[in-house]
Design goal:
Distance between the termini: 110 Å
Radius of gyration: 45 Å
Number of domains: 2
CATH topology of the largest domain: Fusion Protein Consisting Of Minor Coat Protein, Glycine Rich Linker, Tola, And A His Tag, Chain: A, Domain 2
Structural class: alpha+beta
Number of strands: 6
Strand content: 15-25%
Helix content: 40-55%
CATH architecture of the largest domain: 2-Layer Sandwich
Largest sheet: 4 strands, mixed
Number of helices: 6
């Protein structure tokens, strides 16, 4: 039986026994009456304690520190979303690309670079430099050179340095066609540039 109901039943029994404070106890003795009154007071006190325990607790307000942490996390998410929206749409132009537009642009870039390289053949101390250098470049839609690096260099460091200078001087490269620019803001190209005797205008 729930404690509250038990206390109420006991209190009603005592009240009936006491006759609302005017009747004596069943044995007619004063000590028994006083004992019943004390028990009723104890039951009332116990009832008040139970009522206090059953009072719903007040939900605490969020601490200031929690609110600040939530605001900080929301700011980080907003910043990441903004950076993602501003990040350029970059494609990778390779000979085996599934997109024919990328393959076509790679051919244009290679022809442009090869033509410039043949006209400005790498030399050092008046002598032609022969070899192969694999380069990795990033271009924007206007054909501007954003980044350039050597992926696999030639054993001759002079040729590596000459090819890097040539790439910067050959820029800007062909612009992206409209159909390509609609989907890409930048393109990455990895290509091997070879310099042989047959391409040297001054062997």
């Amino acid at each position: 039986m729930p404690p509250t109901r038990r206390i109420l039943l006991a209190a009603f029994a005592l009240l009936a026994l006491l006759g609302a404070g005017h009747c004596r106890a069943a044995d007619g003795s004063e000590p028994a009456l006083r004992a019943s009154q004390r028990r009723l007071a104890e039951l009332e006190a116990e009832q008040r304690a139970l009522l206090a325990q059953s009072t719903p607790a007040v939900t605490p307000k969020p601490r200031r520190g929690n609110a600040q942490e939530i605001a900080r996390q929301e700011a980080v998410v907003a910043r990441l979303l903004k950076e993602s929206a501003e990040r350029p749409r970059t494609g990778f132009a390779a000979p085996n690309s599934d997109d024919p537009r990328l393959r076509a642009y790679l051919d244009d870039w290679t022809a442009h670079t090869q033509h410039y390289g043949n006209q400005h053949f790498p030399r050092a101390a008046g002598k032609s430099l022969y070899g192969s250098v694999q380069v990795h470049v990033t271009l924007d839609a206007q054909g501007r050179l954003l980044r350039s690096a050597i992926s696999r260099g030639d054993p001759d460091p002079r040729l590596n340095a000459a090819v890097m200078r040539m790439l910067h001087r050959a820029a800007p490269f062909p612009r992206f066609p409209a159909a390509l620019a609609a989907d890409y803001d930048a393109l990455e190209i990895v290509r091997t540039l070879s310099f042989t005797h047959e391409h040297d205008p001054k062997p």
